[in-house]
Amino acid sequence: MDLGEPRRAIECHQQCLDILHGLGDRKGESNALGNLGVAYAVIGKLEQGVDYYEQALAIDREIGDRRGEAQDLGNLGIAFTSLGEPMRAVEYHNQALIIVRELGDRRSEAQDLGNLGSAYSALGETHRAIGFLEEALALFSDLGDRRSEWIALTKLGDAYKDLKDWDNVRRFYERALTLARELSEMRGEADALGNLGVVSGVMGQPKLALEYFKQQFDAAREIGDRRGEGNALWNTSRALARLGKSNEAISEAKAALKVFDEIHDPSSDQIEEQLKKWQDQSASS
Amino acid sequence: MPSKDEAYRRHALHYLTVTRNANSLYSEGGTSFAPGLTLFDLEWANIQAAQEWAQAESGADELAANICNQLPDAATQFVLLRQHPRDQIQWRTAALQCARDLNDRAGEAAHLGNLGLAAVKHTR
């Protein structure tokens, strides 16, 4: 049985739901509905995901399952942030937070705080987002949840990037890189290296930036992450252009373009445009 | 002296019990958490052997089918920690067939739900 895709997951959860409905197992039904929502969210069908989460929420409220209710509210919050409705997301996460604090469930509290941070980031309220993310980070650290800690560190780096507070951006991405390596999260490592390269470039350290992009490329290649490879090549190209190394920049941009074309990534258009500008400049000089 | 087949049956049944005990200790948390995990890690090779036997014999032996059906839930905490999603899918797929053969509807639902979760995890 090949289940290496979420569509098969949906089939499984749907069959599971049918059986549990037949058995009159309401809690099981609510779990299956929540799982269906997650599976739909994974394939990008967020509206359908929301529909399932709402059905799960209705059952959990009916049977008085507070933990389940908080979980459903949290799922709805995450979905609405992704749907571009962060204000609604904030409402759901706040409701979830009240419940998990009543229950003394610190892990869920940390998750809801982190998700509130994401929602406020999406709302453009970055300082507020950072406050929630810092709280989440401290809780994850207390709980020894290293993976969630790594995610919170990355989100904090992203938030400080919005504020152009480059010292803090570097500080958080460096910590995220260390944790990604500890956790053998190769994709996370590649992303952190790319982010650190960008920050180094902004902070006037182009050679260091190039070194990070080289490492980003190697990490992406090791895990077969073609998009990561393309990003690393494109980052390298731009850093070389800033150093005035036009020919090398053009060569790297062509390599990036080839990768993005192969995976039909929309970034191709932007690179093609920039490449044409550089080639025109190069011809006229 | 028991036959070789009987020895395998007793071995598998014993390790189903060991897995349940380790899982209970682990789930209690606090000071029981570490001994539960240690017990499971110590016996992991035997538990895997029990699952392999139960899966292979499940078509002909009802006890084997029951063990194959029950083992993934007995080891539920550990498989998440120690098993690759691909292997979780393999255990759960075998268990799903056994639950259907045994007409265990609740077991069937549990395996389907876990198969769905493992499939999403395998994709990410």
- What fold name goes in the CATH topology slot of the domain at 185-285 in chain A? Serine Threonine Protein Phosphatase 5, Tetratricopeptide repeat
Q: What is the terminal separation of chain B in angstroms?
A: 50 Å
CATH class of the domain at 185-285 in chain A: Mainly Alpha
How would you classify the helix and strand content of chain A by structural class?
mainly alpha
SSE run of chain B: HHHHHH
Most extensive protein-chain contact, per-chain counts? A-B, 25 and 18 residues
Q: How widely separated are the two ends of chain A?
A: 61 Å
Summed up, the helix count of chain B is 6
Low-confidence stretches of chain A: none
> Could you report the average pLDDT of chain B, rounded to the nearest whole number?
90
Shape of chain A: elongated
The SSE order of chain A reads: HHHHHHHHHHHHHH
- The class by helix and strand makeup of chain B works out as mainly alpha
Number of helices of chain A: 14
Could you report the average pLDDT of chain A, rounded to the nearest whole number? 94
Outline the low-pLDDT stretches of chain B. none
Could you explain the architecture of this structure?
The complex is a heterodimer of chains A (285) and B (124). Chain A is built from 14 helices and no strands. Chain A has 285 residues and is mainly alpha-helical. Chain A has a domain at 185-285: Tetratricopeptide repeat domain (Serine Threonine Protein Phosphatase 5, Tetratricopeptide repeat). The longest helix of chain A is centred in the N-terminal third of the chain and has 18 residues, at 6-23. With 124 residues, chain B is mainly α. The longest helix of chain B has 25 residues, at 4-28. Chain B is globular, with a radius of gyration of 14 Å. Chain B has one domain. In chain B, α1 packs antiparallel against α2 (33-57), α2 runs antiparallel to α3 (62-74) and α3 packs across α5. The interface between A and B is medium-sized, with 25 and 18 residues.
